[in-house]
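Sorry to interrupt, but I need a hand with the structure work. Could you add the entry underneath, on a fresh line?
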Amino acid sequence: MNDILWTMDLALKITYVNPSIEKVLGLTRAQSLKLSLEEMLTPESLRIARARLEKELADDREEVRAGAIDPDYSIILVLDFLHRDGSVRVLESNLSFIRDRQGRPVEIFGLSRDITERKKTEENRSFLAQVLRCVDESVVVTDLDSRILYWGPGAERLYGYRQEEVLGRPYRQFAGSIYHRDEDSFREEILSRGVWRGEHPQRRRDGSVFWTLVEISVLRDGSGRPTGFIGVDIDITARKRAEEELAAAAEKSLRESEAWVALTADSAGAGLWSWNCADGEIWASEKTRALYGFAPDETITIGKFYGLLHPGDLARVKDTLDRVLREKKGGQIEYRVVLSDKSVRWLAVRAQAYSKPSGEPECLRGVSRDITDLRRDEEDRVQLIDGLAHLSRVLAMNELSTSLAHEINQPLGAILNNASTARLLMARGRDTREDLGEILEDIENDVKRAGEVVKKIRRMVKKRGMRYDPLSVSALVKAAVGLISSRLSIENVALRLDLSPGSGRIKGDRVQLQQVLLNLMTNALEAMNDTATRVLTISAATLSPDTVRVSVGDSGPGIAVEAAERLFEPFFTTREEGLGIGLPICKLIIEEHGGRIWGESGPGGATFSFTLKTCVDNEI
C-alpha cells in the first residue's frame, strides 16, 4: 500500500503517519512526526492548504452551532509536497475532521495518494472508472454550467434517454424537479458545501414518475479548483411506496385509536380538543362542544374560545397557553367560562404542546373536564373552615379575657381600696405619714401582684409543651400550603414557591410552626382582597450554615408607615375585624424556637420573614 494515512492537529502538526510516507516522500515515520505540514509543502501549496482549512474550520463552526454537521463531508486537496531528495511530489489528499463529543473538530485525518506521474485526463478517467465500478446506479458528470459530459448506463436505464441524446445539453432538461429553485443559488450551495443530497420525484422519458435519492459532489482539478459536478441517482420508488403504505396504515390505526380515546374520554365526562396553531381553528369532540356551549356544526376558533372566558381568568389562561407552546411541554389550569345564558362553569384543562421538526409550534391538544360542582363544594368547605377558625379565635380570646379579668381584679381592687383609705386620711387632716407609708407599701405590693398575673398568663401562652422534632423546612412549607390550597384556587391567587434544595433542616414543633405559616399566609391573602393581581410568594433559603430564613410575601398595598413599628404589639390591628393577636403569637412561637420575625414593605407588597436555627446533627 503506497497511500499515506496520517493525522495532524489543528496547528498542522503531524501526530500520526503510516510507513508509506517513506516510499512516497523518503521520510521515516520518526522524521515525519517532528515536522509540521508547513515544512513539507511548497510555499504555494502551503498557502492553498491554509486558506482552504481556515475556511473549512470557520464553516464547520457555523454548522456545529446550527446542528447541521455532515459526518460524511470530506475535503479533497491536490498539493505539492517536498521529497527528501529535494524533488516535488504531487499528492491528492482526502481530508476529514475527527470530532469530540460536542461535534467540534479536534484533529484532521488524511489519506494521501501520489499522483505525480498521472496526467490530468488520465486522472479524470481513472477517477470516473473507479466510481462506475463501485456504483451500479445512475452516474452523471456535468461541467460548471450543468451541461452533461457523461451519461452512464444506469442513467440510460433510469431516465430512458441514450447518452448521445443528452451529451452537451443542460441536466435540468432531464432531471428538472431538483431545479425548481434558482439554478445559480443551487450551484453556489453545492460549491460551498462540496456535496448535496436530497430525495426528489423525477419523470422518465415515457412520462412515468419515480423517486430518486440524488447526491451531487464537486469535481476539482489538481489545484483544488472546481471543474464540474458528478451526480449519483438511486431509484427509491419501491421504498417510497412502502413508506406511503405504512403511513396510510398508521393513519388508519391512529383514527381508530382516536375514536377509542374519544369514547373513553366521553365516558369519563371529559372532552377532547386540538388547537391548530397555523390557522387558529380548534377541533373539538362532541363532549367538548357541550361543555363550552358550541353548536355541533359551529366552526371554533381561538378567538371564540377566548371570548367565552371569564374576564378575571382571560389573561391568566393566555399566559399559560403561551408558556406551554413556548416551552414545548404540558400544563394544566382551571378557569371559568361564561355561557350564552350567563351561567358560569368551572373547567379543569390539561394540555400538551406539539412541534414541527423545525421546532415551530404545530398544535396544542388537551382534555377539558367540568369541575363546577367540585368548586362549589370546595367553596362551601372553605367557608366552613374559615367560620370554625374565626369561632375558635373568638372563644380563645373570651377564655383569655375571662381568666385575665379574674386574676387581675383582686390586686386592682386592693389598690383601689388602699387609694380610697389614703384619701380619707388626708381629708381628716391628721398626721398620716406613717399610715400613708403603709398604704403606699400595700399599693406597691398589689401592683407587683398584678404584674405577676400578667407574667403568668404570658407563660401560659408561651409554654405549651412544645415538641421539638427534626423537620424539613421544604416539607413544612408544602404541608402548610396544602392547608390553604383550596382557598388559593377559589380566590384566583397565584402561588410562587421558591424552596432551595438546601433550604435547611430544623428542630421544632411542627404544629406551632405550621400555625405561624398559616397565620402569615392568611394575613397575606386578606391584604390582597382589593388588588387585581394576587400573588402569594413563599421562599426558603439557607442564610448561613446554621440559619435558615422563610419568607411569606404578598402583592398587596404593603405596610402602612404608621403601623410598621407596632406590627407585633398585642391587640394592635389595622383591620376592623382583626383581633390583633396573630402576629404577637407568631412572634412568641418563633422566639421560643430561638429565631426572630420581622415585616417589611416594598414596591410589590409586604413580606414577613422569620429565621430558625438549623439542626446541628442534620437529622430528618
